[in-house]
Amino acid sequence: MSPTPPRRLRLGMPKRMFSQVLLMQVAIAAGVAVLATGLFLAPLSEQLDDQAMRRALAIAQTTSAQPRLAEELKSTPASADGPVQAEAERIRKASGAEYVVVMDVHGTRWSHTNPAEIGGHVSTDPRSALSGREVMEIDNGTLGRSARGKVPLRDTDGRIVGAVSVGIEYDSVRARLIHAIPGLFAYAGGALAVGALAAYLISRRVQRQTRDLAFSDIAGLLAEREAMLHGIREGVVALDRDGRIRLLNDEARRLLGIGDEAVGQPLDTALGEGRTTDVLAGTVTGTDLLTVRGQRVLVANRMPTDDGGAVATLRDRTELEQLGRELDSTRGLIDALRAQDHEHANRMHTLLGLLELEMYDDAVEFVGEVVGDHRATAEQVTEKIHDPLLAALLVGKATVAAERGVALWISDATLFPDRLIDPRGLVTIVGNLVDNALDAVAGTLHARVEVELRAEGRTAVLRVRDTGPGIPAEQRELIFTDGWSTKKPPAHRKRGIGLSLVRRLAERQGGSARVSEADGGGAEFTIVLPEALAEPGLAPEPTTGLVLKSAATTVNEESR
Predict the structure, then answer these.
(1) 302: closest CA among 239, 354, 242, 377?
(2) β-sheet bridge partners, residue 459
(3) CA-angle at 324, arms to 320 and 328, nearest 5°
(4) I need a surface site. Which of 36, 70, 127, 518 has the fewest CB within 10 A?
(5) PAS domain location, by residue (predicted)?
(6) Dihedrals φ, ψ of 176, to 5°?
(7) Residue 367 backbone dihedrals phi, psi, to 5 degrees
(8) What is the 3-state secondary structure (H, E, C) of 118-157?
């Protein structure tokens, strides 16, 4: 077998976010420190060179300004013990320069640090200074590399008789630069230490906020969150601390009827004023709060978050609400049938007694009266209300009302044609208002509910009055709010939807719904529906599947 090759050690980024953030920030701080040091050192060398050259030039200018130097240059020979050499050496030692060279117009040295060089020609070109110009430069001479300053030497008449060249040893300039580097590195190291400490504190804060998750874990969580939010069948709305919409999933967009443009907007701007906005904003508190958005019945729950915002969930209860209403309709049908069965049994017992007593004429008269009463009740309704759905509804409600000991009256002012454009909508409105009125007067003396339906052109006007306790003035707007009710909710669903739907149905047709005090006490609901009726002579579109099998059956299918 061939030997297994050794595994190579691979260095990579640490997986923990804390370590990654700390490493990146320390690297950035170190890079900034190195860059700042380099940017500082680059001009520092040039600045030191410039300072050395200017210093050399200043010494040269001071030397050339000596009043006797030019005269001694003209009157004495170039020698190591001459007055020019003595004066130049005095100035060199006093200024700390490397050399002070005085030359004549031919470039012959009259002074030098090395006396052996006196009388020789200077090693650098003196023509610029002898022509009257001042020179600053870095150059190489007999004493090595130096920073130089050269100026012309003039006599009392202003004529150039020579030049003065002063040099500053370049090693001293470099020594100053090198001497400055440790201090600079100390500052850079201090800045790096402060940056590392700040990086550590920031990394610790990020670690706490991200629960020490790796970047890959956060990316995975985000991907899972997106899949979950857009896959669940509940609407999710996330709000920030200022009440602006931060996130909407697909179901929330569908239920609320808004799009991506709502993200970033305040709730009242995106949704408008109403109970839905109040529930999502937390103005209305509680669990499983009911609200109506458009034609949808929603159940909302709101949970605050640690950053001051909130997350709200929305469930569509429209279908469940419809099932609940169908259950109520079925219950109403059962009550109506039970009432009819009970009344029918009593009448059959009466008829049987009359026959057993051989009171045949009385029996015939009793049967006629019973049939006449039923016919009269149905005829009274159909004479005033020509729409079959509404007529069937009220006949059925009259049976239920009689069973509960309540008189259900059709007002003498009622006269309603069969020209409804949306009969189901009006049936829902009438059914809800009559049911609420029956509940309000239940258990009271002389309980009575009166229904008035009139057509004013193409406008339908509905009034439902009862003799109940009435509604206080301060609650007359509140009762139309989603979820508001004074009655105990049934087991299968919550109350507080009926009157809200009544107002919404009315407003959807451009109408209104309001409540006031009825004459003699009780409540009076008034519904106005403009454009609810077709033009006279034009038959409305037929309602599919409406067969008047029985009054109670049709009524209770649409009563809620």
Answers:
(1) 239
(2) 456
(3) 170
(4) 127
(5) 221-263
(6) -65, -40
(7) -60, -40
(8) CCCECCCCCHHHHCCCCEEEEEEECCEEEEEEEEEEECCC
- Cα–Cα distance between 426 and 322 in angstroms, integer? 16
CA separation, residue 550 to residues 248, 330, 340 (Å): 48, 14, 13
Helix (H) or strand (E) holding 100: strand 99-104
Domains present along the chain, CATH in parentheses: 19-176 (3.30.450.20), 234-316 (3.30.450.20), 320-558 (3.30.565.10)
Contact in structure between 73 and 110 (CB atoms under 8 Å) = yes
CA dihedral over 105, 111, 112, 118, signed as positive or negative: positive
* DSSP letter, residue 529: E
Q: Quick: pLDDT tens for 410-459.
A: 888 899 998 888 787 888 888 889 988 988 888 788 888 999 999 988 89
Pair of tokens at residue 234: 């509940």
Residues 6 or more apart whose Cβ sits within 8 Å of residue 442:
404, 406
CA 7 to chain centre: 50
Among the listed residues 213, 252, 245, the one whose alpha carbon sits nearest the alpha carbon of residue 230 = 252
Q: What is the SS3 assignment for 236-280?
A: EEEECCCCEEEEECHHHHHHHCCCHHHCCCEHHHHHCCCHHHHHH
Joined together, the tokens standing for residue 28 give 């950035």
Residues 453, 390 contacting (CB under 8 angstroms): yes
Q: What span, in angstroms and rounded, lies between the C-alpha atoms of 149 and 52?
A: 9
The dihedral formed by the CA atoms of 428, 434, 440 and 446, expressed in degrees to the nearest 10: 180
| Angle subtended at Cα 48 by Cα 45 and Cα 50, rounded to the nearest 5 degrees | 110
Residues 6+ apart with CB under 8 A from 464: 430, 433, 434, 437, 449, 450, 451, 452, 524, 525
**Lowest-pLDDT range of 184-188, 236-240, 281-285:** 184-188
| Residue with tokens 């059914």, as numbered in its chain | 431
pLDDT tens digits along 398-422? 877 877 788 888 888 899 998 888 7
Residue 406 φ then ψ, to 5°:
-120, 135
CB 340 within 8 A of CB 398: no
Rg (CA), the chain: 54
CA distance linking residue 89 with residue 308, whole number of Å: 82
Helices (H) and strands (E) in the chain, counts: 15, 14
- Provide φ and ψ at 523, rounded to 5°: -115, 150
Global model pTM greater than 0.85: no
